[in-house]
Amino acid sequence: MALHVVGVRHHSPACARLVEATIRAVRPRWVLIEGPSDMNGRLGELLLDHTPPLALFTFYQNEERTHASWSPFCRHSPEWLALQAARTVEAATYFMDLPAWTEAFAGVRNRYGDHHEGDERISRTLAALCARFRVDDGDALWDHLFEQPLPLEDLAARLDAYFDELRGELPGGPRDEPREEHMLRWIGWALGEAEAQGGDVVVVCGGFHAPVLRRHARPAAAGPPPEAPRPETAARSGTYLVPYSFRRLDSFTGYESGMPSPAFYDAVWELGAAAAPERLLAAAAERLRGRGLPVSAADLIAASTLAAALARTRGHACLARIDLLDGLAGALVKDALDAPLPWSYRGPLRPHTDPLLVEVVAAFSGERSGRLDPQTPRPPLLADVAAWLAAHDLEPARAVRSVQLDRIAENGREKSRGLHRLRILGIPGFQWLSGPTPGQEEAGLTEVWEIADRFERESALIEAAAWGATLAAAAAARLEEALLDAQGRLAALAGLLVEAVRVGLDGLGDRVLEQVAREVHREPSFVELGAATERLTGLWRHDPLLGARGARQLGVILEAAFDRGLWLLEGLQGAAAPADPAELRGIAALRDLLRFGAGKLALDPARATAVMERRTADADAPPAVRGAALGVLWSLGLGHPSDPSDPSDLEARAVRAVRASALPRVLGDFLAGLCALARAEVVRSEGLVAALDEALSELGREDFLLALPSLRLAFSYFPPVEREAIARLVLRRHGADDVGARDLLRLEVGVDEVARGLAWEGRVARLAARFGLEDALR
Amino acid sequence: MSETTQVQRPPAEVLHAEELARLRAADTQDPRPPGWQLSLQAVRRFILGDEKLKVRRKFVGNASLVDRAMVTLATGRGLLLVGDPGTAKSYLSELLAAAISGCSTWTIQGGAAVTEDQIKYSWNYALLVAEGPTARALVPAPLYQGMQRGQVVRFEEITRCPLEVQDSLLSVLSERVLAVPELSGPEAMLFAREGFNIIATANTRDRGVNEMSSALKRRFNFETVFPIADFATEIALVREETARLLERSGVPAAQDEKVLEMLVTTFRELRSGETTDGQALERPSAVLSTAEAVAVAHAVGVRGWFLRGGTGSAEDLVECLAGTAVKDNAEDLQRLRRYFEQRIRRKSGEHWQRLYEARHLLPG
């Protein structure tokens, strides 16, 4: 009886080689693999005639949390090879790790990522190792130490030494301990069996766990194999196989990501470390040329010469991934870069990355998608969708039929959500013809759909099953991905959030919303941000489909938008900039958010007040922004910190400000800002109307014409009734009867003509003055 | 060594002479490119450090950048290091030259007034008048020297030179030969010896590389040097370098860790245009390099000690920051104010609040 623990890095072809060779050489009777032990009854499904990459998808939902995660396999995964080799030697094979839905994996999306690198102690050790070997990061170090051609014994010894150094005597984190305990139970059971019956045990696990498993493995007393924890009966959960792709495998970020560049390591597995670089060089060239980017034969020769020289310098017998990438960068980049080389950091590509490098990285990532054996049990999504369609009487028939839904009715709302979910998943046969946009109070609530039977529906559903097991979960996951992909384009984000409301926000993960909030923090344009804020505030306040949880989630985004909005507002500059109605709408959106969200959302009124105060007082700010900032303070009654309670103080300030702004180029813009934000207050304030009247009377004819366009904008914010009220105030000031106020508002001719007339009059007066005829005109 | 202690700043080959000697003695296995004093592996150890040979790590940037730079030089192409000011481009070029040629002093400092004869050669006019153009009368400039001896020539701030002066390097880079038309016979052509190469640096802030002729661009391999990516690495470097400067200025007080943290954080945030928690902000146009951070940390320490006999405070930091990050640019000042009002204010921690409260010390 012997125990062989092979500590691996997931998706490493070198480790896959070692695992396969070990199992073939040892011919163990038991093979235990790091994988979800609740799959043990169904390992046969994994051994069907699939084409990797594929993944075990696990979902879980109870009242507190939802969870969806993937355990991806490609053909060079050590775990995948362990399964295949174990079958060849007819060993009893088991997954020995906790199921993916247990607490130990909460929040984890990729079981086979490099999670332990998130541990600070580990990352310190890793940094020290990188410095010692003079390489940039863990990936370069891994390639340097393990992915070069190496006799298997040396590889095994090196791996053990490496993981021993990395883990040392460290206890596992709170997530590792229960997992290692579970794995040890399995190993104990297998060792017990082996002691009784003879035979060896091979354990394939993440290298980080290997030292611990090796140290603490003890044969257990004879008994049945350990049982996987079962989800409580109230929870919905399941695990099934889905096709996967290199692109998705490479799109996990941070510590969720594993080995990068799957296409490169796939080639290493297929052709060996010596021949793989050539294929990737060709793939990169093909991809670049396919995108119309210039790559000459000379460039490719230079790239491979440089890569070879780099490999020699770094002591590599074959080109490592980083050698080839560095060689390509050296040969292709012919100018200063605006962003670091993509392989010098983890995470999504930085903005301004050289397009050539973007394509190179994509070529190394690869396009391959997996395919499942036709006998694989159907993912539950198909049954879920069929059941849902039947229950709501929406089953597609051969004849196209049209369906009308009322979203206010309980039944209609449910149907609408489901159909939108199908649409978001791209399932053919469900077409949305018309319907309201959420968040708009006045919109109607009827939707029209067209439903048809399409033969592509089933294959589309199998593909969509990779997103989730139920229609709701899959649509939510698909939206999450789209939100993450939108990368800071706020208009797109707001659109997607509207989609999310259509399908019900409940399933959307907090992680994604945090991500969206982060993107909001990067929005550079105040106008864009204002438009999105306006849209989302409306949605948040009015939409009947938004549940309590949805409101909370949307609130997080709105909080971020508010914060960003204040920041951007302070950046609007230009004392001569004309009033921009879009900017004023943005300021109004922020004001409304503060007005309706205070108390419910984490908005900081003190900070908003401070920003508005500073903007009001800033001589370099556009006049409209100054007026609008004052309007915000006035309309919300946010006074000067010294005396916040006295509203007349604000009115007095507004009056003073109007007097101070009574310059022809400034007045109209300032008023536009003030009226856009504090319409009701302006109408009610006799003092302000008086000041305004004075200011206007004092303007000369020329000056008045100069101020006219922006004055018109300012008054356009008042509806006719309020304009009439102002007119009344003005008439009374001049001692006239206010009955005729309405007539003042009704002009027989257009404003442009009046302006032209005034201009003509001015010229006539000047001409008259030249000839000493002023008196004649009186 | 007594001579070097008199020198304000000895060149790298003198400062690290012992390390270089140790590396040379141990450098027996790996092949050396023709004309090189060390193998690539030994150059790598010299720059990136080696515990066994007790060689200190000198360049904290990417290791792979150093690899690519060496390979470029070994394959006989010119190396052009580009990047923001203060990203240690010149330092790296000095280290490379010292390790490869044992000499980092064949340096041309680019500028608007640089002429061809300051790069190639000029004449001793007394001899020229007395003997006519002879090899004796020729006064070699750095490029001539480097070609003649087979050593690396450094060209600092190449893009600040007039374009025609830049282009005078074309034939040297491609043909590896320098014509001296005034002389005749074999002396009329100077063929570069093995080991000669050029490391140029250019900074992206002033003229940048856009105006450089494409013929010259083609003859260089570009390497962009980025600011230090990792917070811990940068703060360690600033701490270490500042300690050295403070010691030289006779300041015995240790640096305040909190002030150092705030300094490096503000520099990184303003430089990258993004706060630590991912909020975008406008970058000031002023240079906020690690080297500047060291200068500010030094100034803060000096103020603290000589004005109050203690360590530098948040107030000192604000005043010094204004001098570096703003200089006399009104827009930058506005950006910095906004950064203080809206971002620093929201950072948690007492020291950040002190920094926020000291914002009235910003000029204007």
Can you walk me through this structure?
Chain A is α/β, with parallel strands linked by helices and 778 residues long. Chain A has four domains: 3-247, no CATH class; 260-365, no CATH class; 378-544, no CATH class; 571-746, no CATH class. Helix content of chain A is 55%, strand content 8%. Chain A contains 34 helices and ten strands. In chain A, the strands form three sheets. Chain A has a four-stranded parallel β-sheet, with helices on both faces. In chain A, helix 11 crosses helix 14 (355-365). By secondary structure, chain B is α/β, with parallel strands linked by helices. Chain B folds into two domains: 2-225, Rossmann fold (3-Layer(aba) Sandwich), CATH 3.40.50; 231-361. Helices cover 49% and strands 11% of the residues of chain B. A five-stranded parallel β-sheet of chain B has the order 2-5-8-1-9. The longest helix of chain B is centred in the last third of the chain and has 19 residues, at 290-308. The chains are: A alpha/beta (778), B alpha/beta (364). The interface between A and B is large, with 44 and 44 residues.
Strand tally of chain B: 9
The number of helices of chain B is: 18
Distance between the termini of chain A: 121 Å
Strand order of the largest sheet of chain A: 1-6-2-5
The CATH C-level class name of the largest domain in chain B: Alpha Beta
Largest sheet features of chain B: 5 strands, parallel
For the largest interface in this structure, which chains are involved and how many residues does each contribute? A-B, 44 and 44 residues
Whole-number count of domains of chain A? 4
Oligomeric state of the chains present here: heterodimer
Reported by name, the CATH topology of the largest domain in chain B is Rossmann fold
Beta-strand percentage range of chain B: 5-15%
* Separate helix tally of chain A: 34
